[in-house]
Specification:
Radius of gyration of chain A: 21 Å
Order of helices and strands of chain C: HHHHHHHHHH
Low-confidence stretches of chain A: none
Shape of chain A: globular
Distance between the termini of chain A: 28 Å
CATH architecture of chain A: 3-Layer(aba) Sandwich
Oligomer: heterotrimer
Chains: A alpha/beta, B alpha/beta, C mainly alpha
Order of helices and strands of chain A: EEEHEEEHHHEHEHEEHHEE
Strand content of chain A: 15-25%
Mean pLDDT of chain C: 85
Largest sheet of chain C: none
CATH architecture of chain C: Orthogonal Bundle
Structural class of chain C: mainly alpha
CATH superfamily of chain C: MetI-like
Number of helices of chain A: 8
Strand order of the largest sheet of chain A: 6-7-8-3-9-10-12-11
CATH class of chain C: Mainly Alpha
Number of domains of chain A: 1
Number of strands of chain C: 0
Helix content of chain A: 25-40%
CATH topology of chain A: Rossmann fold
Largest sheet of chain A: 8 strands, mixed
Mean pLDDT of chain A: 90
CATH superfamily of chain A: P-loop containing nucleotide triphosphate hydrolases
Chain lengths: 321, 320, 281
């Protein structure tokens, strides 16, 4: 199966430090490679500051990468400037659903306007054709038509999430990036939105890149999982593999930190203390997790571990995996 | 175990442009000394309002319209502002959702801790900085002497929350109210912060009221759970009992909607309907009835609220 | 539309002071439009026999040293004072908003250049700067408008820049990019409409300041020249007479000037409530 999206050695470095001369280089995304197959849902997990937000914004072509390639179908998107990307035919093919649905809708737009915007720009729809398509999308995402005239502040969290989804699927993308779409929602609403997303994936043949910090949600809907730590992928593989047999010490720490709905008090679990290393001018020889890693050994400071196979389709970047 | 906080038939109303919102109605629960109780509910359930009312820091638009809040034998609804202020900070402390916002951005964290110590604790001015460093060490901040001179923006979110915990525990309170203390923190950081609160609470025999929307978090750290829905306490009881055999349909629904290992998406069920409009809700009647599939004719009758206490109880005419 | 009207009514009736300000505003607009035809006397007609008469039923605000009816002069002056203030505010609003938008959105060199320009203007005591501009360019109404616009310009730039910078990486801007909006569409289709309400509030607030500034220039003898009726000049003419007991000559134009400034400041606050969609419901 050929990949829909193939990311190769993608890198984003931000200059930091005052004035004209940059004093440091912040490695937000460092040498990241992965692919997404058509119809696949890939989860992207990691703590805040690990670069997952930057990564998805590079893929959505909102920011320009420093180096690397983003193969999407037959084209390399990395070479196209984010500035002019809005006018490219590929614009419609990659869309995004944002974490804060309320903030991602122009406060002066009604729900109708928000969903209609991409249809106007990217599909040139007007008048009744536009009206029809917006209503069709409202029906598909479960937005009562009566709510289409409302402003975002007049909608509930779940309704705003639906508007965000309707807008993103309006122009029939092939890859939908979901940036923590349910993080701000109550569990009872979260279930509905997750089911809606899975239903849409099936009906529209979409691929999802699902960013989340909630392992329990990732487990529910993702085929594969990518774990990031400080700009690098430390582990990736099929969901059951990665969550069932985590090979990287960071993934293990992450999993053991997830609260469990248990009836008996849980036993002592390993905790991840300390703070991550600085992402500014990191030593290319030292494992990014070194210093915080419970299994750290001298070798970890001598050479950066590369992603290598630990199981079928399962990769981990650890010398001792 | 003796009772430390007793909230009895507490009702709170908010005056808004759209009318009077009865945010809390006859809310009752209690916390014993050293006990950890979770106040669980979705947004709009009134869990934070309950905590704010107990701390006496309700928004000016809100008013306690009935009931009592008894802390260590003192009725806070009758007590003077001065008495409450004295209790707050010394006997009862609170940590908030966004720790960075709760810290003064232009004061060093060591100074901020020392301020609290000087205001409420019996400590000499000269000893306050050293005591602040000791507290920072106690909440697991590495290199506390140096960090005590840092400003909040120089610390990570997890570190800021630990500073907040240090401030909250500065005067060794007997009750800590934690309002969604780990929302917005990473799970790894959340685990460390919650472990810290639990360990310190055990060590000092401090009672903790954990306000959270996360049933799993509540189940890991709490002895008892109080479930709220639309300003009512719908169920309360020991955590294992309540999770194993929920009696209120809302609790059961909430559990059935919570993702956890071994459950597929298809097995999770949403809670139908929406929160009732609290401006129009009839007084003293079950507020879940409109969304409930176990509703009977007598559900329209006035609901006996749950009395405060440690027993497993549900406010429902047709419990599971 | 109906909802908007209801909201406007709500904001106006909620606070009686706002309602009063709105009433004053209507009064000033009517006076500016119809002033000359409503005035009971010719504002220029001097009559030595009637000089310095205190307020009476015939001359509500009294008469000045040349025997001219002060009420008529105050009424007629409204048009000129309003015209100066409105045109200078429109100028400052248009250029300030555009410059601030560009500075906030583009950042970098553009931001630096615009920032320096604004700092340079702000480095002067603003009224002295306005005096200098009028003195240098010539004593005309156009130059008063220009000077008033220039000293107000930095306020608009700063507000527009801050509001733009704050919104430029907001979720809805990213969403607009994903919807196919180019840079120009983002700037004028997304950011501008979102900061406009705030800029309009700013306009209303600086309107009072502009009126005061124009009157101030005339008061010290720059800009509008006698015998043209203008509030600043009239206060200046009456100032010397205060000591000899003819208080009405300066008081009434001064009072109207104050009311005008007051009115626009209050309206600015009300406008903020009206334009912010989040304050509705």
């Amino acid at each position: 199966m050929t990949a829909l999206l193939d990311v190769i050695n993608l890198q984003k470095i931000y200059p930091v430090g005052g004035g004209g001369k940059a004093r440091g280089q912040l490695h937000a995304v460092d040498d990241v490679s992965f692919s997404i197959a058509p119809g696949e849902t890939v989860g992207l997990v990691g703590e805040s500051g690990c670069g997952k937000s930057t990564l998805v914004r590079l893929l959505a072509r909102l920011h320009d990468p420093t180096a690397g390639a983003i193969h999407f179908g037959d084209t390399d998107l990395a070479g196209m400037k984010a500035r002019g990307f809005a006018r490219r035919p590929e614009r419609a093919a990659i869309q995004m659903v944002f974490q804060d649905a309320g903030e991602s809708i122009n406060p002066r737009y009604t729900a109708f306007e928000a969903i209609a915007a991409p249809l106007r720009r990217l599909r040139g729809l007007r008048g009744t054709a536009l009206q029809q398509r917006v209503e069709e999308l409202a029906d598909a995402t479960g937005i009562p038509r009566a709510l289409l005239g409302r402003f975002p502040h007049q909608l509930s969290g779940g309704q705003k999430a639906r508007v965000g989804i309707a807008r993103a699927i309006a122009v029939e993308p092939r890859l939908l990036i979901l940036d923590e779409p349910t993080a701000a929602l109550d569990v009872s609403v979260q279930v509905v939105i997750l089911k809606l997303l899975m239903d849409l994936r099936q009906r529209l043949g979409l691929s999802y890149l699902f960013v989340s910090h909630d392992i329990n949600v990732v487990r529910l809907i993702c085929d594969r999982v990518i774990v990031m730590y400080l700009g690098k992928i430390v582990e990736q593989g099929p969901t059951a593999e990665v969550l069932g047999r985590p090979a990287h010490p960071y993934t293990r720490a992450l999993l053991s930190a997830v609260p469990e709905l248990t009836l008996e008090p849980p036993g002592p679990r390993p905790r991840l203390g300390g703070e991550p290393r600085s992402p500014i001018n990191p030593d290319p020889k030292v494992c990014r997790f070194f210093g915080r890693c419970p299994d750290g050994r001298p070798a970890c400071a001598d050479s950066m571990p590369r992603l290598s196979p630990v199981g079928p389709g399962h990769l981990a970047a650890c010398h001792f995996a | 175990m003796s009772e430390l906080l007793r909230v009895e038939n507490l009702s709170v109303a908010f005056r808004t442009r759209g009318g009077i919102v009865r945010a809390l109605e006859t809310v009752s629960f209690s916390i014993a000394r050293g006990e950890t109780v979770a106040l669980v509910g979705e947004s709009g359930s009134g869990k934070s309002v309950t905590a704010y009312a107990a701390m006496g820091i309700l928004d000016p638009a809100g008013q306690v319209t009935g009931g009592r809040i008894v802390f260590d034998g003192i009725d806070l609804t009758e007590a003077s502002e001065r008495e409450i202020e004295d209790l707050r900070g010394r006997e009862m402390s609170m940590i908030f959702q966004n720790p960075r916002a709760a810290l003064n951005p232009i004061r060093r964290i060591g100074t901020q801790i020392a301020d609290v110590l000087l205001r409420h604790g019996n400590i000499r001015r000269a000893d306050a900085p050293a005591e602040a460093v000791r507290l920072l060490a106690q909440v697991g901040i590495p290199d506390p002497a140096r960090r005590s001179r840092a400003y909040p923006f120089e610390l990570s979110g997890g570190m800021c929350q630990r500073v907040m915990i240090a401030i909250a525990l500065a005067c060794a309170p007997s009750l800590l109210i934690a309002d969604e203390p780990t929302t917005g923190l990473d799970v790894t950081t959340q685990a460390v912060a919650m472990d810290l609160v639990r360990d310190l609470a055990r060590e000092r025999q401090m009672a903790t009221l954990l306000i959270t929307h996360d049933l799993a978090l509540a189940s890991e750290y709490c002895d008892r759970v109080v479930v709220m829905h639309a300003g009512h306490v719908v169920e309360s009881g020991p955590v294992a009992e309540l999770l194993a055999a929920p009696r209120h349909p809302y609790t059961a629904r909430l559990l059935a909607a919570t993702p956890r290992p071994g459950i597929a998406l298809g097995d999770l069920a949403a809670i139908p309907g929406e929160l009732p409009d609290l401006r129009r809700a009839a007084a003293g009647v079950c507020r879940f009835a409109g969304r409930c599939d176990r509703r009977r004719d007598d559900c329209a009758g006035s609901l006996p609220p749950i009395p405060p206490g440690p027993l497993h109880d549900a406010a429902c005419w047709n419990p599971l | 539309m109906n909802e908007t009207l209801r909201h406007v009514r709500h904001v106006l009736t909620e606070n009686p002071v706002t309602l009063g300000a709105a009433g004053l505003f209507v009064f000033f607009v009517l006076a500016a439009l119809l002033g000359p035809s409503l005035a009971p006397y010719d504002p220029f007609a001097s009559d030595a026999a009637r000089a310095l008469q205190p307020p009476s039923l015939r001359h509500w605000f009294g008469t000045d040293a040349l025997g001219r009816d002060i009420f008529s002069r105050v009424l007629v002056a409204t048009r000129l004072d309003m015209a100066i203030a409105v045109s200078s505010v429109i100028l400052a609003f248009a250029f300030g908003t555009l410059a601030g938008l560009a500075a906030g959105f583009l950042g970098g060199a553009t931001d630096q250049a615009i920032g320096r320009l604004v700092d340079t203007i702000m480095a002067f005591p603003l009224f002295v700067l306005a005096m200098g501009i009028v003195a240098a360019l010539g004593n005309t109404v156009t130059n008063i408008v220009l000077a008033t616009a220039i000293i107000n310009f930095p306020l608009y730039v700063r507000v527009a820049r801050a509001e733009t910078a704050q919104r430029k990486s907001a979720g809805f801007i990213e969403a607009a990019r994903l919807s196919g909006d180019g840079e120009t569409a983002i700037l004028f289709g997304q950011l501008l409409p979102n900061i406009l309400p705030i800029m309009m509030v700013q306009a209303s607030l600086t309107m009072g300041y502009a009126i005061l500034n124009a009157a101030g220039l005339s008061f010290i003898g720059l800009g509008v020249r006698p015998p043209t009726p203008e509030w600043g000049i009239m206060v200046a003419e009456g100032a010397g007479l205060m000591i000899s007991g003819e208080w009405w000559v300066a008081l009434f134009p001064g009072l109207v000037l104050m009311l005008a400034v007051f009115c626009f400041n209050l309206l600015g606050d009300a406008l903020r409530d009206i334009v912010d969609p989040r304050r509705r419901s």
